Amino acid sequence: MTPASSPLVLSLGDPCGIGPELTVKAWRALKDDTGLAFCVIGDARTLRDLEAPVVVVDDVDQTADVFEEAIPVLDRPLDVHAVAGHPDAVHARHIIGWIRTGVELCRSGQARGLVTAPIAKSVLYGAGFKFPGHTEYLAELCREGDGPAPTPVMMLTARDLRVVLATIHLPLKDVPPALSVAGVAEIARITQAALKRDFAVAEPRIAMAGLNPHAGEDGTIGREEIEMLIPAAELLRAEGIDIRGPLPADSMFHDDARAGYDAALCMYHDQGLVPLKTLDFWSGVNITLGLPIVRTSPDHGTGFAIAGSGVARADSLIAAIRTADTISRNRAL
């Protein structure tokens, strides 16, 4: 078990995006908060270019000693200087390496959680990156020996809403074939376990959204509820998991409805992300459930179009750091 006194680590993400700027803003916002120290894994020069106080550390154990005065950086320098707003594949191997180092530090117990600044997958593909995104790469890095990689589940949070996604970045036409009784049930099990371990919810309540309008209306607007989602819910209830649904998604997210569950299990990306971003556009957090390490990230992309302009808001990154802190402390109990 990783001690609660260990620091968080933050991988810098794409150095040409808004990650470095947000990192500096997050440090300025959190440097006086007791216990929220984080160490950056990345290129120290990129942060110094933003006129931020930086201290290069040899070990993440030094994080708390310097955090109030400067940003501690485990320096893994770039070969080529990063230019804000101009993504370059030359940085790909460094970006990938920063993430890998963060996972290694968490798995060894030297860090208690990893916060990842945004990456652009298109930049990484030229370096042989073969994963759909951060989440799948992290799962591979957490593989034990020759065994299977853990099943990662994407949870997003904002204010009092937590949503988990049964499918993520799929065209709508590909969503129904991607769903199955076993797959939906496994995501619900991982969610229930995380609500207990990571969020200290003693008796988790999950609300399952239907795939179709009106949750299929008894099969008249699609049969996925009858053929997959109802059987999955029945299987889970037989296991003692408190899950409702499938429910009509259009009535799941108002104030009174949200009070009735601890997480909403949604069938596709926009079904969960539209209500979440409507509720709190700026402070959403992406959390990866199902891993042996704590991982959070801001719920937005690299922002190349505004990188270097100074206008990017750090709300989501700050919330991601606070969430990683809370989850890691709950796991240490």
Radius of gyration: 20 Å
Strand content: 15-25%
- Round the mean pLDDT to the nearest integer and report it: 95
The biggest beta sheet reads: 12 strands, mixed
> Can you tell me the CATH class of the largest domain?
Alpha Beta
Classify the oligomer: single chain
CATH architecture of the largest domain: 3-Layer(aba) Sandwich
- CATH homologous superfamily assignment of the largest domain: Isopropylmalate Dehydrogenase
Q: Residue share in helices?
A: 25-40%
Q: What low-confidence regions span 5 or more consecutive residues with pLDDT below 50?
A: none
How many domains make up the 3D coordinates? 2
Instruction: Name the shape in a single word.
Output: globular
Secondary-structure element order, N to C: EHEHEHEHEHHEEHHEHEHEHEEH
Strands ordered across the widest β-sheet: 3-4-2-1-5-12-11-6-7-10-8-9
Class by SSE composition: alpha/beta
- CATH fold field value of the largest domain: Isopropylmalate Dehydrogenase
Fold topology:
Blueprint: E1 8-11, H1 19-30, E2 38-42, H2 44-48, E3 54-56, H3 63-66, E4 71-75, H4 92-107, E5 113-116, H5 121-125, H6 134-141, E6 153-158, E7 161-165, H7 175-178, H8 181-197, E8 205-209, H9 224-238, E9 242-247, H10 255-258, E10 263-266, H11 269-279, E11 285-289, E12 295-298, H12 315-332
Parallel strand pairs: 1-2, 1-5, 2-4, 3-4, 5-12, 7-10, 8-9, 8-10
Antiparallel strand pairs: 6-7, 6-11, 11-12
Helix pairs in contact: 8-9
